[in-house]
């Protein structure tokens, strides 16, 4: 069993998935595959899947090793390494002679594919000199968050994504390469003919909850073929950890459905909705009576720093997000920042309920679907120092 500091509150309930619900539609090899999955398995062999962010800053990689017992704390999970010259992590082929990147385990989740006691290990990446690799933004984020831990920072993150068929056309769109009715507004929280990919979202929900993530919910999004899942509200760095593991599980599940997942903020161009990653935030002070004063103060700082901040809210120093933040499709403008009450065209939204109750949280709507939540959480937390 995982020890206290690894077990999250919702891990008390174990939802066992049947093999068939994880591995999608019945295929010709299912019986054969299941035969091997059901082989008697020795108790002293634990699969540990090490997961890390590669040099792209958005794609994840993983590899497996066998441990001889289930770790009961992080210290029991050994460090590992991988060949950075094969993942773009070192600067290229010239680095073949110095290609080892260290994997430092930072969080452990239950493996929903193989089930407990097998585990998924989220890792930070370090160069051979012991420095964080350029896409390891977790270190600095964790340092910032630790500086405000007495303020009890909670994050709730909404991750939107698009599902593509192997022909690179979104799920549910007319084939070949036809367009859905863009003005219908039928897909957001839609059912039946207006949505596609629900089975994947359902498998993903169950996998996330089983894993120990603070999974909070999901809904179909504005553009057909796109969905959202939410994490939180969660204390500190775990919200961003959970988003990365949620992204990993989504990609793994999609493999079984022959589907490709994209977090690109504007995958289908100008005429179609964008893909965001709203970050909701509160501190103890904001959640207490009269907290709205603190909420407004922090929102103002986040707006004042817009020009700087916006460069860290997507994968490409703002270039990707520029295509999404165009003032249409419930987005604000890329060039300016505005705090709005109950306003989904604002950069930062404060709910009406928060104003009437005088406390709660706010929503930064600017981060793009392909942002690094470590960077975003770090920047939001910095405003509280
Ligand atoms: P919407 O789509 O209306 O913006 P969602 O229901 O999709 O809202 O997402 C709300 C997010 O806010 C969730 O991730 C949830 O965990 C988070 N959240 C709720 N309460 C708080 C809070 N006090 N502090 C921070 N985040 C919160
Ligand atoms: Mn090898
Ligand atoms: Mn939402
Ligand atoms: Mn949404
Ligand atoms: Mn939102």
Give the uncertain stretches in residue-range form.
1-23
Q: Count of helices?
A: 11
Order of helices and strands: HHEEEEEHEHEEHEEHHHHEEHEH
Overall shape: globular
Counting helices, strands and paired strands, the structural category is: alpha+beta
Hetero groups in this structure are:
adenosine-5'-diphosphate, manganese (II) ion
Look at the structure and give the mean pLDDT. 90
User: What helical percentage do the residues reach?
Assistant: 25-40%
| Biggest pleated sheet | 8 strands, mixed
Termini, distance in Å?
37 Å
Which strand-content bin applies to the residues? 15-25%
Q: Specify Rg, calculated over alpha carbons.
A: 21 Å
In total, how many beta strands?
A: 13
Question: Could you explain the architecture of this structure?
Answer:
One of its GO terms (biological process) is glutamine biosynthetic process. GO terms for molecular function: ATP binding; glutamine synthetase activity. It is found in: Cytoplasm. It is an enzyme of class 6 (ligase). This protein is of the alpha+beta class. Helices cover 26% and strands 22% of the residues. The protein contains 11 helices and 13 strands. A hairpin with a 6-residue loop joins strand 1 and strand 2. Helix 3 packs parallel to helix 11 and helix 4 crosses helix 5. The longest helix is centred in the middle third of the chain and has 19 residues. The protein is globular and about 60 Å long. The N terminus is likely disordered. The structure holds adenosine-5'-diphosphate and manganese (II) ion (4 copies). One manganese (II) ion (MN) binds next to loops. The site of one manganese (II) ion has 3 residues, from loops.
């Amino acid at each position: 069993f995982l020890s206290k500091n690894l077990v999250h509150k919702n891990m008390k309930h174990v939802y066992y998935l049947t093999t068939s619900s994880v591995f999608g539609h019945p295929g010709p090899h299912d019986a054969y595959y299941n035969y091997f999955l059901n082989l008697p398995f020795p108790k002293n062999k634990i699969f540990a899947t090490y997961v890390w962010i590669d040099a792209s800053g958005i794609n994840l990689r993983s590899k497996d090793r066998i441990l001889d017992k289930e770790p009961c704390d992080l210290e029991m999970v050994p460090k590992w390494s991988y060949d950075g010259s094969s993942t773009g992590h070192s600067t290229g082929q010239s680095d073949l002679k110095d290609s080892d990147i260290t994997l430092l385990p930072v969080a452990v989740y239950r493996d929903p594919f193989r089930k407990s006691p097998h585990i998924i290990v989220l890792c930070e990446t370090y160069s051979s000199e012991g420095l964080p690799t350029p896409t390891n933004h977790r270190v600095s984020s964790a340092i910032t968050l630790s500086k405000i831990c007495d303020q009890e920072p909670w994050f709730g993150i909404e991750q939107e994504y698009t599902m593509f068929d192997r022909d690179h056309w979104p799920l549910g769109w007319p084939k070949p390469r036809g367009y859905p009715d863009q003005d219908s507004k039928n897909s957001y929280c839609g059912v039946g003919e207006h949505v596609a990919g629900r089975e994947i979202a359902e498998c993903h929900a169950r996998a996330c909850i089983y894993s120990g993530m603070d999974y909070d919910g999901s809904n179909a999004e504005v553009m057909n073929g796109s969905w959202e899942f939410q994490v939180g509200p969660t204390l500190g760095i775990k919200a961003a950890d959970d988003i990365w593991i949620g992204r990993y599980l989504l990609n793994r599940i999609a493999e079984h459905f022959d589907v490709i997942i994209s977090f690109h903020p504007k995958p289908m161009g100008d005429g179609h909705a964008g893909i965001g990653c709203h970050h909701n935030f509160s501190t103890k002070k904001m959640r207490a009576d009269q907290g709205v004063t603190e909420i407004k103060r922090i929102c103002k700082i986040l707006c004042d720093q817009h020009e700087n901040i916006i460069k860290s809210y997507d994968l490409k120093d703002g270039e990707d997000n520029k295509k999404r933040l165009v003032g249409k499709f419930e987005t604000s403008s890329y060039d300016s920042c505005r705090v709005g009450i109950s306003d989904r065209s604002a950069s930062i939204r404060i709910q009406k309920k928060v104003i009437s109750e005088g406390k709660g949280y706010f929503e930064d709507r600017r981060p793009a679907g392909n942002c690094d939540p470590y960077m975003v959480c770090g920047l939001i937390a910095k405003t509280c120092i």
